[in-house]
Each structure stands twice: as C-alpha cells, then as structure tokens.
Input
Amino acid sequence: MVAVALLSNPRSTGNRAFLPKIRDYCALQPDVFHYEVEHADQIGAALASIALVRPRVIAVNGGDGTVQAMLTELYGGGHFAPGQVPPVAVLPNGKTNLIALDLGASGDPLLALESVLALARGTMAGHIVERELISLSNSSTNQPVLGMFLGGAGLADTILHCRDRIYPLGLPNGLAHFLAGLLAIIGLIPGLRRLGRNPSNPVTVTMQREGALAGRFAVLIVTTLERLLFNAPAGDGKAIGQMKLLAVKADLKSVFGMFRVALFGQLGETPSDGLFFQQGDLIRIEGDKSSVILDGETFHATTGHPITLQATSPVPFLKLAA
Output
C-alpha cells in the first residue's frame, strides 16, 4: 500500500512548468506512486496499475478534462471493488481548475501535492467530502461519461471560441477568459453584434418535476460543485436533487442580473428576471446543433436526440481546506 497514487497529464497547461519539479519530488517519496498519461485512452491501464498498489488517495495532476476522463474510468472500469474506491484529490492545474478550487486546492501544484501527501499519511479526518457526479449519456456515447461541471448554450459557445480563437494567441488565461466573455456580451448588444459573437442556438432544458425551459440562453450550467459563478454559493442545500441548474436568458438585462446576484446575493435565493436556478436528479438538454462541454469534453445535442444528465451516488474526495 502507498499513501498517494498520482496520475499526471504532461500536456496540461500547468505541467509545462511544474511537472519536472513534481517528478523530482515523487522520486524522493517512497510512498508516492507516480503514473503519467498523455491521452485519455491510457487512463484505463493507469488505473489498473494504480489499483495494484492500493493507494490511500488518488491524486490527479491535470486539468478538468483529465479529471473527467479519470472519474469516468475510475467508476466505470471496475478497477476497485465496490465501496473500496479511494478518495480523489485534484491538484490545481490546467486553464480553469474549477474542480480543484471546489476542493480547496489553488496556487502551486507541488505545494498542493505536499498537502495531499501529509493528509494521506495521517487520518484524513475532516477532509473527506462526498460529491455526486454528473452522468452524461446521449446517442453518441457507448457508456455514460462522468464529470462535475457542464456548460451549455452561450457558455459552451464562449468556451469553444476561447479555446479555438483566443488561446492560440498566447495570452494569459485570465485575459483570454475576459476577452471571450466580453465578446459574448457585445454580441448581445443591438447594433454591435457584428463585433461580438452570434447568439447561441435555442435549446430546451427539461428537469424532472420542474417542467421545461426553452429559448436562447447566454449561460447554461449544470454542476454538482458547491459553488458556481465567482465562487458564489448556489442554493440552500434543501432542494430535491443534487445537480444544480443555472440558466440565464440571452439578453443584457438577464446577464447583468446574473452578475449582480453572483456578486451580492445567493444563487437560488435572490430572485432576478431572466435567471433560472433549479436543482434535480434528472435533466435533458435538446436543441438543433447545440453544444455542451462536460469538464473539457464536447458533446452535441440535436433535435430528437437529447443529452441526458443524471446524478450519481455520492463518491469520496479529499478536500485540502477542512
């Protein structure tokens, strides 16, 4: 048995600078098992090897896409006996780090790894938290894909535009995200839309027990993370279902209302026109050529072939900040 099994993706953004230091650190720690993968299809073999060393914690050193692929294989590949899956820790890496931030990890990945190892060598009391995962299925997936944060409608279009057009410019991540968001907002202003992005295609979102939302949305988020926009808490934890749905109409009033609530209120408790917040355990998204992105991986909803999202049973994670 080892304390930590570390799964690294050398192609993740942060690893260009930090991976040599992490390799050197792991080489000096006999109770750390370090396995590197460059492609998602290598994660199955990685977890088969990791299961043999029986780690107390599995740590992921990569972006949200690496975490998504690892979670899908971890809970769908049968590498561990039911109920014996170790808690997962996520190091801050990649371009967004939403999952790592939700689990209390930020800043230097090496310092985060040192904290994970210190906890794994101890009792981990007070640091094990449970999160449901989002299970995504549609006509193109052979088996459900698991993740924790899904962006759709205008948000997915913004992410794809940033990935395809702005990241190649080599700008800092924060500036790239700001420019992508600014172009999305400009696209909502009559008379200036040619300078921004075109509005997203209409979608229909159906939640069990809540009915359907239909139209053009500037933001569509489904997540099992505790916080949404600008680290704002979402909901009061009392609603039925574990997936949180946030939809914002594609107009300036609704978008600025979203910013106001996210900065000064609590999503789900502070009302705002054009902003919809719901919680549930089954969601369907349908639209004509509408994209959704689950932790970095893109899927497409088409008319008559919806994307179905379901919440899984709670699974354990290691949170650095108790």
Q: What stands out?
A: The mean pLDDT is 83. The chain has two domains: 4-125, 136-311. The first strand starts at residue 4 and ends at 8.
